[in-house]
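Hi, here's the filled form for the chain we discussed.

Project: internal
Contact: R.S.
Residues: 681
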Amino acid sequence: TSSSTSSRSTAPQSTKLLKLYNPQQTNIKLWKEKEGVIDFLNLNESLQNNPAQTRRVKFGYDCEKENKESQQNKENYKISIITAIKDTKVEFIEQVETSIFASSYCNFEWIVVNDFSNDQSCLSKLQNLEIKSNIDTRLRVVHRHHQYPNHPNHPNLVLSSGLPAARNFGVSFSTGSFLLFLDSDDLIESTMLETLIIFLIKNPQFALVNSWSVGFGYKYYLWIQGFHDYDYNLRDNMITVGSTIIRRSVFFEVGQFDESLKEGNEDWDLWMRVANNGKWGYTLPQFLFWYRSSAPGKWSARDTKDAREQFLASQKTKYQILFPENNSFRGHVPRIKLRSPMMPMENIDSDFHFVNYLADSKDPKLLLIVPFLKMGGAETAALLLLRGLVARGWKITIACTHPLSSSVATANIATMNWRHEFSRLTSDIFVLPAFIRLADQPAFINYLIESRKHDVVMISNSELGYNILPIIFKFISKLPNPPIIIDFVHAETPEWKNGGYMHYSSLFDYFLSHTFVASNHLKELMIKNGKPLNKMTTLHVKVGGPEGIEAEKEQQKEENKIIFRNKIRQQFKIEENAIVAIFAARIESGKQPNLFAKVISQLAEEHLPIYGLVIGDGPQLKELKQSFFKNVFFVGAIGHEKVTDYYSASDFFFLPSKIEGISLAAQEAMSCGLAILSADV
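And the returned structure, exactly as it came back:
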């Protein structure tokens, strides 16, 4: 890898939370220090589907011709991406290039610094980038020499060596109000720039912002540490430089990178200097950055205990405000807080006061407003629908609206445990509560519609989506080509808010052009609730196993079913002739997973050869796993395609739900040849 790489070459041993990935295993385990496994997520697809992969479905962003408003936005909110390159592999340079130019935010410049490269293939690639810069003016390649007599700002500049100096050199050519120091082998998600810049604009109290990171390369892990660790940042570098945007004014105010730190820790030193000046940042709970980890031994300032202790001793001397006691790490890192999600009687503005106009392509575009992206019936229906639309040329944007936990990181990860499924279909995914106040979310939805020029806005199971419909409706009525607004109702929930989303659909019917429902039964209920028949259609989506789950796949052969059946049964040590029942749904009271477990357990206690597999995630999962149920295995949330593998290992589908008799999961099970045992509701 390049020598121009962040000083945190591997994850620190003191990390509180780390995901370990073994390519030979099926899943990834999330470990917490001294507490063992605290979560179990199927993230293989996410880790193997990074932003540079060709199989990633790109939204197809293209900057629109500038107008007066976008020109003002360009002057104020430009991001300068600084990348120092020293003999980096061409493959890595091309990957970072791909991820940058796939960005959903157009107002950036990429300053590539040739940091005394000698490798001919690398130099050829830099020459190609220079040629590209003649076409795309957002790209600029500058070369470091020992003397630089023609520097635009510093004539006869004499340059020092090292990564910190290379970054400072790149900044001297930049014009952006915000700076991102992206290494030549790391990657960014397409929405990272847009998400981070919006957060800083809407939260002027913060000097920096970054996101959670995915580690790949030498090690695979998920990094969820950051600015919220406050004083722990004095003991270890919790902040990944390539995921962090800093205000230009702050960067120069605190004094740029220390060019004497040539062997690493220059970014850690910068964070301390920012804190020493009474400023701090915020870490967004989203995985928007991909950090390519390197083998140990690369950075001498971090790889030996003596070097580390020497560095920290010097820091305590330099930043005495942070270290009030000579041997203490309990310092004074500023505690800067977010504004309240919504103030009492706060006015809701429909204008986001930020523009990012993208060119209108001929492809039809859909904005899907959902609560989250986790395993469930409504999400399965949405996933199948989007697959069909993408196959027909549609471009998809997804906005998630469910509030995040303020303290439990794993709870936020769990709400997105199917994100990798949707990432196959679109890169344009936004988790609104992660970076936008509740009071600003209606305006952000309007901003998305105006920026992407959607043809259809679809609401599915989002309470916020329904509640802000009047604001959206009023805003889009002013657009030259307003989208139509539709909704999809998946199920009735009579115990919640007078029928749940079925009730919301009827209540906000005035603003909806049409409503799609999951079944004729649901349509009849909604008609009784006052919904006009001529505005409803039962939506049919392909479901099920080999023939329905993905149109492009060939029919799964019978012998492959037997292989999956034997493999999964061996995994749980289930004998060949035993009966296996499967439950696939949200683990919540309405689906009654506890009744499923009790029935299977009681039959097993009576010495019947029966086992139960519970697939899904939800609020009751932890409680059920802590209880003892004989012959019942809790699989957790898994990828949609893998559900059919478990159907192959089962004999019948058992869903004792209080609220639905024939769920979408039951239909999938039927298409895989399983018998169905369901409640008569």
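Let me know if anything looks off before we file it.
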